[in-house]
Amino acid sequence: MADESWRTPAIVQELAAAGVEEPPSRYVLGEKDRSDELVAAELPEPIPVVDLSQLAGTDEVAKLRAALQNWGFFLLTNHGVEASLMDDVLNLAREFFNQPIERKRKFSNLIDGKNFQVEGYGTDRVVTQDQILDWSDRLFLRVEPTEERNLAFWPDHPESFRDVLNEYASGTKRIRDDIIQAMSKLLELDEDYFFDRLNKAPALARFNYYPPCPRPDLVFGVRPHSDGSLLTILLVDEDVGGLQIQRDGKWYNVQVSPHTLLINLGDTMEVLCNGIFRSPVHRVVTNAEEDRISLAMFYSVNDEKDIGPAAGLLDENRPARYRKVSVGEFRAGIIGKFSRRERYIDSLKI
User: Which molecular-function annotation in GO is an example for this chain (predicted)?
Assistant: First the structure.
């Protein structure tokens, strides 16, 4: 029988704790991807900031439009999620990741220790032996629809983890709805256009843990990618940077303000709005001294309708820029391309 141990790489936190001086070769970028590959500039302008409490006003809507057209992401303030709750979410995540590996393996994303599934604790899917791996571990949980939550993957320690995540997810779902409603107005679409796609739509929480890395010049925390979601709401460790975003072929460092949320569009939204707003390519670089925690809430669409440009945005002067596909094909394409550092959305362009 062929050796397929390459499909189940080590937990990165365990590698870091062992004090490796050089990352294993599976994590190291190839020669052509090195040199200045991980160097990024400071943003040429401040990160766009949108005040959710003022989003009904003309000025704030104009800020939202500019942010989505120029960057595809923005910082959200006055969003209604308590600062203490945001702190609790990240602190509990850190407490989970800092538990002994035996306790965390109860929530493993490997069936029988070898067959990958999306939900659970571990590393990302490994598709090929030559795939360059990311220097991060993750805990992936389905939070919506609530009746489809698999609590067998939800940590029971720390004891308050489930209740705090549930409360936080309720807040971010409300934020999703407010932003989607505003985007419908910006695009002059019927208000129900997006909401018709959100009934029983999946939402996934991804907790990311990035241990210190001995060679941050050679290793990605997360490889360059764009999210496959409709919308992503990101809560990041404000004390340790690492997130970078790409525009016009250049990489820029992203710094957040305390207790703000970073909102970015996903590929699903880019297709639905026919490229009027773009899904940004981003990545995470590693840090030699400090670890880092983040939580991404991925909001997607349900399986009832295909993913393609909205009819209300098309006419003889504005043809479709992407072909229509089923939700299942779209999700499979996103997963397949991610491991190869490719964007599935590029294959949909007409």
Answer: metal ion binding
What HEC string does 134-187 produce?
CCCEEEEEEEECHHHCCHHHCCCCCCCHHHHHHHHHHHHHHHHHHHHHHHHHHC
Cα 127 from Cα 136, distance rounded (Å): 17
Least confident window among 150-159, 295-304, 330-339: 330-339
Is 2 part of a structural domain of the chain? Answer: no
Q: How far apart are CA 75 and CA 47, in angstroms?
A: 7
Question: Please, what is the average pLDDT of the chain?
Answer: 93
Instruction: Calculate mean pLDDT across residues 178-188.
Output: 95
Give the integer Cα–Cα distance in Å for 205 and 94: 15
Provide the residue range defining the domain that includes 162. Answer: 10-348
CA distances for 54 relative to 59, 175, 180, angstroms: 8, 13, 15
Closest CA to 332 of 233, 200, 228, 231: 228
200 located within any domain: yes
Q: What is the largest CA-CA distance in the chain?
A: 65
Q: What is the CATH number of the domain that holds 283?
A: 2.60.120.330
Structure tokens at 295: 């939580």
Write the single-letter amino acid at 160. S
Cis previous bond, 158, omega within 30: yes
CB of 350 within 8 A of CB of 309?
no
Average pLDDT over residues 283-312: 95
Distance from C-alpha of 223 to C-alpha of 286, rounded to nearest angstrom? 11
**What phi, psi does 66 have (nearest 5°)?**
-60, -40
pLDDT for position 265? 98
Residue 205 lies in a domain: yes
